[in-house]
Automatic annotation (TrEMBL):
This is Iron complex transport system substrate-binding protein. InterPro entries: ABC_Transporter_SBP, ABC_transptr_periplasmic_BD. Residues 83-354 form the Fe/B12 periplasmic-binding domain. Residues 35-51 have a biased composition (Basic and acidic residues). Residues 1-28 form the signal peptide. The keyword Translocase does not apply. Residues 32-57 are annotated as: Disordered. It comes from Clostridium collagenovorans DSM 3089. Keywords: Signal. Gene3D superfamilies: Nitrogenase molybdenum iron protein domain (3.40.50.1980).
Amino acid sequence: MKGKTLKNLLTKLIVGVAIITTSTALVACSNTKGAEGKGEESKPKVEEGSNSKDATTHYPVTITNYNFAGEEVKVTFEKAPEKVITTNQTTTEIMLDLGLEDRLIGTCYLDNPILDRLEDKYKKIPVISEKYPTKEQVLALEPDFIFGWKSVFSDKTLGDVSEWIERGTNTFAQRNTVKTVGNYTVDNLIKDIKDLGLIFNIEDKTNAYVKNIEDKLNVIEDKTSKLEHKKTVLVLEEGKEGEFRLYGKNDLVGDMVLKAGAENLGKESGKVSLEDIVGLNPDAIILVHQADGKDVRDEELAKVFTDNPALKNVTAVKNKEIIITGLAETWAGGVRVIDAVNHYAKELYPDLFK
């Protein structure tokens, strides 16, 4: 009897343990699935195209940028922008060259024809306006990021950056359009690109992009550093009534000329007459053009100098050392800058590049 009772007791004990073990396992499985579900909800998907940090550890990021008055503004990004409007050609081409075309919802304002290698990408992006868009046009698109020149944030165009940031639309003005930054330089372009790496969480890509710029500059500067005589240059843009706009050493193209191994005779931006050009007598002239639909290096444009009898004794005109360049290469800073520096150096010193 005792044996039978003991056997029944052991049977009940074994069944009880089995039930407890099974219940624990079920609870554990349930908790594991719940934890996985919560993880998927709380952990944002890493942005497409990102090859840097996980988005959960990368954001928020804060950069320093500028308003129309040139004052510093702190701009915080909680995630990579997904609905971007670019208001100028340089910013459009930077976005396309960095592979961020899927973030663009609109572009505007071409100074020169779009870069050949980016044309297919560009054709897929809606053009909002031939020049600057109206505030109403931009509001209708509900962007989360506006990327352009400082001038687009004037009261006459889109208005102050603080208004856009308060609406949830972050802004970025290229440094080489903000006078308070100081002289416009290639280094400012590099800083812009590095900021974009932070904003879009693509620092691996932008670091490689910057290294490529620096490596190309080093090659050019290594060649031109051997020069015993550096050529003098005037950087001009045709104006009205025989006057020309002069680009000075404070302009981006002034820094580009320096990196190409030449001396810019223009100290500061301003205007010059034909008489001034004759008096300065540069070894070469770089002619900047825009808004004419012509190729950035259309040599026919040199006729403004070569066909003018008043300039026939200017060294640059006599030797036909007129270098044609587009505003998309020389203003604000974009993907064309380094190739343009290389082009200037080769035109100025062809023997160095044989």
